[in-house]
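To the team - FE2/S2 (inorganic) cluster complex, inputs and output below.
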Amino acid sequence: MSDELALSDTAVVVDVPDAACTTQEVMIELDRRTTTVSYRRGDTLLQCARSAALRAPYSCEIGSCGTCIARLLEGSARMVNNDVLDDDEVAEGYILTCQALPTSRSVRVVYE
Ligand code: FES
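Output:
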């Protein structure tokens, strides 16, 4: 393998860091109304709701109480901390919005 080919291979495999999140919008369903929020990098889903003046439920804001639980209907997000949800609940789409950073272009969550 030549050096040129090796460099080319390296250039193709790019690991996108979290800071390069490309989320554009977050759709939030609360009280049977859907609000679309332009995503501001670094915001949690709860912060997105607040930026739209939505009265989304929350309490501890450290991932320990479960007050902010919503369900992810579209897209993906990762939780910084989760002391509440078990693996089955996470697999069903439940998420702690105070700890959730979106990782897809658009995200839709519903507060049930
Ligand atoms: S507000 Fe307590 S877990 Fe999110």
